[in-house]
Design a protein that fits this description.
Blueprint lengths: L1 H22 L7 H5 L21 H6 L7 H4 L24 H9 L1 H7 L8 H5 L19 H9 L4 H5 L7 H7 L1 H7 L9 H5 L19 H5 L6 H4 L8 H4 L7 H4 L16 H8 L5 E4 L2 E4 L4 H5 L8 H4 L25 H9 L1 H7 L8 H5 L19 H9 L4 H5 L7 H7 L1 H8 L8 H5 L19 H5 L4 H8 L5 H4 L8 H5 L10 H5 L1 H6 L3 H7 L3 H7 L8 H5 L19 H5 L26 H27 L5 H8 L47 E6 L1 E5 L1 H4 L14 E3 L13
Antiparallel strand pairs: 1-2, 3-4, 3-5
Helix pairs in contact: 5-6, 10-11, 20-21, 23-25, 25-26, 38-39
């Protein structure tokens, strides 16, 4: 046991000794001779004459140069005996880094160093001496997160470099720190964000006026695309993509819109400046002959300063001039191309009805300046802008109002477009209530892609109109797309209704107004003719025909936009929901009440056979009974034959009845006698009529009314009714003594 313990201790001691030997750093190549004079350590302070300087052995061991011998960099000691001369030549980094040395020599820094500027940075000023680290090392001064601080040593405000040299940019480091790039680096820790060397390069730093510079006007886009690879597509609404490569002089450079260090808008006044243009165009009297008339060339500087283009240089729009001329604009050969900055909008315009008319040379077609003005262009959110929401109807009305050029050439079905819009719910909301979120012309027809409704790409095409309305009425759109009126649900080839067919295109009304409710059957009946016909046979339909607004219409039962088949459990008329639907108008509804056949009709023997045969059976029985009774009365000389003949449309008989012969009664009846007979008996009110046991009263109350004996016996006859053509047959009083008084 003791022997094993001794072996274990001996083995552990051996391992510890081997580990200690392994952990001892190996001597750097060729440093043994140097170490005899130069002690290891960090240099502090100035070098003392006659004292060999220290060298940072630990830093050199951790640097990329650890594998190099001292004389690889200090080449003037190679092959010489020691001690070497006290002052050695400067290390030439270009021996290994030739490309970087060449770029540095041509840069601002290299030229300043060659000129003997003591402030010019050299290799060791940025990379160090023995403590050089790779840029990927977070502790390196050239690491991405450290580059702004490294450059800021010389380029911060008030630095010796800033005071000694005329640098056009001010507060470079502080502006960068507050920029989107600086915030990304310092606040978000994004090492992929742009730093000084990303734009200016590491060694080939040149002024922006040098055409070789990475930040020159013609190269800045290429520099930015190192990070912003999809810059053409990102800026497609602003810059036409192919111009970046084909005609860079026609478009603004990145720094024209994004200031270099603030990432804000800035302009470099080079060549043709706005001041040069205003020397001539600031004169209100400046004119030129165009198309047989004198056109003003005056540019109102105040108007331009308040426009959206206040920070846009003249040459950015009026491109192609020759800067060397006293009047560069004399060489301009093309009109302003708005697509340079507004590529997507112009592309849409060229494909629109307006753009196609322009391409055909039509004088009626509007161009950009007709809607947006020339130099006084305002944003659509500014109330004074013609494109402001409340001003759009008036803007479009310049051409589309009745009698104007666009309305005259239009041959479609939509007439009085602007007038109808003004009276619609949209127009009143916008123009009377001032609701700028209300739909205007551009909201439905778009601002630049106006196309006829027959065009499948048009925003008002019947296949697209629901999506267009959904921009404002998204909740209704969700209900509509899930209803039976959409092809996805109906699965039919028949045309299905869309928004404009029920609500119209321009004269859209409130749905709670009487006109809309009364005409809803006309709209639904266009597709559902049979159902509409049966609806008018019901109580709801008959009352609706009389103009009663509160009676149930189609959408009260079926819904407006969420119409679903009855067998769908979500339908308002499903078994689960029908009682609740009826209860909207009929409180206390129950299952039996809701079983009412809403569209039942006696005209459909297939769907409702019981109603059909019952109606026509009862009708036949009634008509037959009346015909038989009328025929009997007319042929028997009955005292009421004339009445029966008048009611049934038959000729009264001329033959006498059982009580004697008498001529037939004919209308008009003679006037009643002024006084009753002296014997006090009630006689008939016209001569020649028979007395009878039945009392009959015929009087005009909208239509003839017939009352039986029980209905008249207890009533007093109003003398005002005893006039032709009223017919009064009263039971005669008994004749003779003792007869009761009438």
């Amino acid at each position: 046991m003791a022997k094993r313990l001794c072996l274990a201790v001996w083995w552990a001691a051996g391992l510890a000794a081997a580990s200690a030997i392994a952990q001892q750093p190996k001597a750097l190549p060729g440093s043994e001779e140097c170490a005899a004079c130069h002690e290891a350590g960090r240099r502090t302070g100035k070098r003392q004459p006659g004292v060999p300087p220290l060298f940072d052995l630990a830093a050199l061991r951790a640097s990329p140069h650890a594998a190099l011998e001292c004389n690889n960099c200090h080449s003037d000691v190679a092959g010489k005996s020691f001690p070497h001369p006290e002052k050695l030549a400067a290390v030439e980094c270009g021996t290994c880094h030739a490309d970087q040395q060449t770029q540095y020599a041509q840069s601002l820094h290299g030229k300043a160093a060659k000129a003997g500027d003591p402030l010019a940075p050299g290799c060791k000023g940025c990379h160090g001496t023995h403590d050089v680290l790779r840029a990927a090392n977070p502790r390196a001064p050239t690491a991405t997160t450290e580059v702004p601080r490294l450059c800021g040593r010389c380029h911060h405000e008030g630095s010796p470099v800033h005071l000694a040299h005329d640098i056009p940019q001010e507060n470079i480091l502080s502006n960068y720190t507050e920029s989107i790039h600086g915030e990304g680096l310092f606040k978000k820790g994004l090492i992929v964000t742009a730093v000084c060397t990303s734009c200016h390069t590491s060694h080939f730093v040149l002024p922006h006026t040098d055409p070789r510079s990475s930040i020159s006007k013609q190269n800045i886009a290429k520099t930015c695309t190192r990070c912003h690879a999809q810059i053409e597509s990102v800026h497609r609404k602003v810059i036409r993509g192919e111009l970046w490569e084909k005609q860079p002089h026609l478009i603004p450079a990145c720094v024209d819109c994004h200031e270099p260090h603030k990432v804000r808008r800035v302009f470099y006044e080079q060549g043709m400046s706005d001041r040069d243009c205003q020397r001539c165009h600031g004169n209100p009297e400046l004119r030129a002959a165009r198309g047989g008339r004198a056109a003003s060339l005056f540019v109102n500087q105040r108007e331009l300063a308040e426009s959206r283009h206040s920070r846009t240089a003249c040459v950015q729009c009026h491109a192609g001039g020759t800067p060397s001329l006293a009047q560069p604009c004399r060489t301009l050969t093309s009109k302003v191309d708005c697509s340079i900055c507004h590529a997507e909008a112009v592309t849409q315009y060229r494909e629109s009805a307006h753009g196609q008319l322009v391409a055909k040379g039509s004088p009626d077609a509007p161009v950009c300046r007709d809607c947006h003005d020339t130099h006084g262009t305002r944003g659509k959110n500014e109330p004074v802008s013609p494109t402001f929401s409340r001003n759009v109807p008036a803007l479009c009305g310049k051409c589309h109002r009745t009698g104007q050029k666009a309305a005259v050439r239009y041959n479609g079905t939509q007439k009085n477009v602007v007038e109808h819009y003004v009276e619609s719910i949209h127009g009143k909301g916008l123009l009377e209530s001032g609701l700028t979120v209300t739909a205007n012309c551009a909201d439905c027809h778009t601002a630049h892609s106006e196309l006829p409704s027959a065009n499948p790409r048009s925003s008002v095409n019947r296949n697209n109109i629901a999506r267009t309305c959904a921009r404002c009425h998204h909740g209704i759109y969700e209900l509509f797309t899930a209803s039976i009126h959409t092809p996805e649900v109906a699965r039919t080839s028949k045309p299905l209704p869309v928004c404009s067919e029920c609500h119209s295109a321009h004269s859209i009304q409130r749905t709670d107004l009487s006109d809309f409710r009364l005409h809803i059957m006309d709209q639904c009946g266009r597709c559902h003719q049979d159902i509409a016909r049966t609806y008018f046979d019901t109580f709801h339909g008959k009352v609706s025909k009389l103009g009663y607004l509160k009676t149930a219409k189609c959408y009260d039962c079926h819904g407006a936009h969420d119409i679903l088949p009855v067998n769908d459990t979500r339908s308002r008329l499903s078994r689960a929901n029908i009682v609740k639907t009826c209860g909207q108008c009929h409180p206390g509804s129950h299952r039996r009440f809701a079983g009412y056949l809403t569209h039942a009709t006696h005209h459909d023997p297939k769907k409702y056979p019981f109603l059909f045969y019952a109606f026509w059976g009862m009708t036949s029985l009634l008509v037959g009974t009346l015909l038989a009774a009328g025929g009997h009365a007319a042929g028997s000389g009955h005292p009421y034959a004339g009445v029966a003949a008048a009611l049934l449309g038959v000729s009264p008989g001329a033959e006498a009845g059982p009580r004697g012969a008498q001529r037939a009664i004919r209308a008009p009846l003679p006037a009643p006698p002024p006084q009753p007979p002296p014997d006090g008996r009630f006689q008939l009110l016209w001569p020649g009529a028979y007395r009878h046991d039945v009392e009959v009263l015929l009087r005009p109350v909208g239509a003839a009314a017939l009352a039986g004996v029980r209905g008249i016996r207890s009533r007093r006859v109003d003398p005002s009714l005893l006039r032709p053509p009223d017919l009064r047959l009263l039971r005669p009083a008994p004749v003779g003594p003792g007869a009761p008084a009438p």
